[in-house]
Amino acid sequence: MKKVFTFLIAVLLTAIVFAQSPEKMSYQAVIRNSNNQLATNQTVGMQISILQGSPDGTAVYVEIQEPVSNANGLVSLEIGSGTVVSGNFSSIDWANGPYFIKTETDLKGGTNYTITGTSQLLSVPYALHAKTAETITSPVTETDPVFDASVASGITATDATNWNNKLDSYTETDPVFDASVASGITATDATNWNNKLDSYTETDPVFDASVASGITATDITNWNNKLGSYTETQNLSEVLTLGNDANGIQIKNITDPTDNQDAATKAYVDFLISQIETLGNSNLILWNKLGSIDEVEHSVVGPNGTIVGSVNFNNTVKFSKGITPNTGDAGSGVNFPTTVVDPERGCVEMWVKFYYAPVAYSYGVYGFINVHHWTHNVMLFSWHNDRSLLQFSLQFNGTDRHAELTGFNPALDTPIHIACVWDRTGIDETSEYMRIYVNGGKVAVNDTNNDWGTNNTSGSFRVAAPWDEDFSTDRYTVDDIKIWNYAKTTFDLNKE
After folding, report:
1. DSSP secondary-structure letter at 63?
2. How much is the pTM?
3. In this predicted model, what pLDDT tens digit does every residue of 35-74 receive, in sequence order?
4. 3-class DSSP state for residue 119?
5. Highest mean pLDDT: which of 3-7, 152-156, 259-263, 272-276?
6. Virtual CA dihedral for 436, 438, 442, 444, nearest 10 degrees?
7. pLDDT in tens, 426-462
8. Of 68, 256, 307, 437, whose CB has the highest number of CB atoms within 10 Å?
9. How far apart are CA 15 and CA 73, in angstroms?
10. Are the CB atoms for 353 and 477 separated by under 8 Å?
11. Within its chain, how far is the Cα of 3 from the centroid?
């Protein structure tokens, strides 16, 4: 390993006596390598340390420099002007010695230092202290009246220490505080209070067995909120599924109550009332719901119907399913006796849902009432492909008279209420003898002729007669037909 030799030239330190702040010390050394050869004209890495108390004492100041040696291997530098590693050269208390200087050198100009030696700083460096103290002849007395009058004039070193320590080490000995209910509050208590016990785990088995052990934060929130924001979404079906039997009395069959304990909805009660009203009305001649074979063959009011041809009951109209004449069967429908209609006056109303409009200049006549094509035995009520004509005709085996609406274009796949009304003496004491209503509104009249036939004892009265055999699919459905023996002109579209 290479050894580096340095030589301190002490006489150069005397210059420090006359130095002014910032203070520095001049330092020179001759650098030699391990072969005792001068290290000339090269950059040398040096670390200089000021040690207090002993050669192994505490470093109160450390700096690094990179001086360049001359042709004689001499480096010159000023301690106090290098790159500071630690400490403050100007704040060294030279009176509190002794002090030693340690030099570490790297011949390659880096920081891979080799300790070259430690030597004590003798009397000369302490001139720095003498320079500072030479003008102090007596204790300094503060005479500034402003400071003496300041609220800060009474601050002691203890006060400053307590302030800096933020009273961390201060112990309260006031007996009044010890007697306070707050005296027993610990740091843990304060933490638990601030955290609202969120992280606290109860391990007491008595609590686990308590009825309160299952209370959650959500339960507490709901209690505090008095459940004011809670919305119950459970329906009756869910209640019944859970087995709520209403104290032993089961509630079931809401839409079709059968037992004494069954609940009846308002809709069901209103339905019964409407039936009672209808059944008690002597003006209602026929009411058939047309929603199934059983309904067709068991009219609510009047004679039962008879199914002919091919039909289905797959489609819902307004209140329930209706009858749909099947494709390819012009003879399908439901027959009723012709006596259900009075040649003098009356009303036929029904609900219809259309799926396709008739195609112009082709077969596709939707016959709501009649039998076969061009056979007008009693009456005809149909939607023609020609001019989208909604036509109501009366014949009764006599002269044909009719009322008609051109440009009938109803919304498809939508329940439509249609009605035909007639009175040979005038409807509502007017000169109008025949009318057509759509969704409760009058759309067509006949105020010219009232000389249709009078014979209703022969022929057929057929409902849902497609009238043509070229249907490629279901075209329409008819539901809830009613026939009255007077010229009815008002219709409750929300009541079956």
Report:
1. E
2. 0.47
3. 888 989 999 999 999 999 999 999 999 999 999 999 898 9
4. strand
5. 152-156
6. -40
7. 999 999 999 999 999 999 999 999 999 888 887 668 8
8. 437
9. 23
10. yes
11. 77
Given the structure tokens 């279901």, which residue do they identify? 474
The token pair at 490 is 């008002």
Which token pair is 284? 């209602």
Distance in angstroms (rounded) separating the CA atoms of residues 397 and 143 = 140
Phi then psi dihedrals of residue 128, to 5 deg:
-60, -45
* The pair of three-digit structure tokens given for residue 431, joined into one six-digit string: 């000169």
- Where do the domains of the chain lie? 10-133, 162-264, 277-484
| Residue 367: closest CA among 479, 464, 473 | 464
Q: Is 257 exposed, middle or buried (0-12, 13-18, 19+ CB in 10 A)?
A: middle
CATH of 10-133, one of 2.40.300, 3.40.30, 2.60.40, 3.40.50: 2.60.40
DSSP 29-44: EE-B-TTS-B--S-B-
Q: Do domains 10-133 and 277-484 have the same CATH topology?
A: no
Contact 271, 495 (CB under 8 A): no
The pLDDT value given to residue 240:
60
Q: How many CB atoms lie within 10 A of CB 113?
A: 16
Q: Tokens in use for 200? A: 């606290």
Level-2 CATH architecture, domain 277-484: Sandwich (2.60)
* CA pair distance 236, 239, nearest whole angstrom: 5
Residue 83 CA to residue 180 CA, distance in Å, equals: 59
- Express the helix, strand and coil content of the chain in percent, nearest 5 each: 20, 30, 55
CA separation, residue 195 to residues 185, 200, 219, 433 (Å): 15, 9, 19, 87
